[in-house]
Design brief:
Strand content: 5-15%
Distance between the termini: 16 Å
Order of helices and strands: HEEHEHHHEHHHHEHEE
Helix content: 25-40%
Shape: globular
Radius of gyration: 17 Å
Structural class: alpha/beta
């Protein structure tokens, strides 16, 4: 899962508006919901997120990396220490990178409520090829899941999925992969709405940079569901981008890693 996400996060994206480039995330404009994107295994991206969280003092944190069940296991009040929290949420079984990079995000807002928006791999497999309104536990129409994507967007997203998987997937599987991405985006948007409704703003969403796209990612779905919310999207990249679809862009040094396409060779 992580190797695929890494390949996708490092790709360029078309724009909906000219983004603002910054060196860090300590002085973001006011918003109700902040989507803080990342390349999952890049420590600098998590340091930037922690800086933003400390400044914003959110009422709630939404994690792509946690399921709702995992989030509910996190005690209210004082955060457990790193090893205890890792054990409580069984992080080591999830396939996400080293928990040491994520733990500072929890402690940067020690009083914030924690929400999980993750789709377990088994659930994603079960949802493959199924109509989205049947597998989304909520109001699918509110997030546009009840209707097909515009043809040009569908084609573009299938091309992104093909490249993200190193052109190793059968072409007939690509539409289902796009549907699962839409489902993940809707889960993030829905969790952000729940957090706002229960705790007020601001809410911070921690997710991959691809899910933080303003043109078709979770921010777009949230804006569709609740147009009055002020939403700000941050994309973090490892190389300069041509008009990425985010409000704010940070470009860091690449984190050394094996070629993610090695897994498909």
């Amino acid at each position: 899962m992580i190797k695929v996400c890494l390949a996708l996060m490092m790709m360029a994206a078309p724009a909906t508006a000219q983004p603002v480039s910054v060196d860090n995330l300590r002085h973001l404009p006011d918003a109700d919901v902040y989507f803080l994107g990342e390349v999952h295994d890049n420590p600098a991206h998590h340091e930037n997120q922690a800086d933003a969280i400390r400044t914003l003092a959110p009422t709630a944190l939404v994690f792509e990396m946690l399921t709702p069940d995992q989030a509910e296991k996190i005690p209210l009040g004082t955060r457990p220490d790193k090893d205890d929290l890792r054990a409580v949420i069984d992080w080591d079984s999830t396939g996400w990178p080293d928990f040491a990079m994520y733990y500072p995000l929890f402690t940067a807002a020690p009083d914030a409520a924690i929400f999980g928006a993750g789709l377990p791999r088994a659930a994603a497999r079960a949802a493959m090829g199924q109509p989205l309104p049947q597998v989304f536990d909520g109001d699918a129409a509110r997030f546009g899941l009840d209707r097909p994507l515009p043809p040009a967007q569908q084609t573009a997203r299938e091309a992104l999925q093909a490249s993200a998987h190193c052109d190793a997937l059968p072409a007939e599987l690509l539409p289902a992969m796009v549907s699962i991405q839409r489902l993940r985006d809707a889960l993030l948007a829905n969790a952000a709405l729940d957090a706002i409704e229960q705790h007020g703003s601001p809410v911070v969403v921690i997710t991959g940079t691809g899910h933080a796209r303003t043109d078709w990612g979770a921010p777009a779905m949230l804006a569709m569901a609740e147009p009055d919310l002020r939403i700000l999207s941050v994309g973090q990249f490892e190389q300069p981008q041509n008009d990425p679809a985010h409000d704010v862009v940070v470009v860091t040094q690449p984190h050394p890693r094996p070629d993610p396409c090695d897994a498909f060779r």
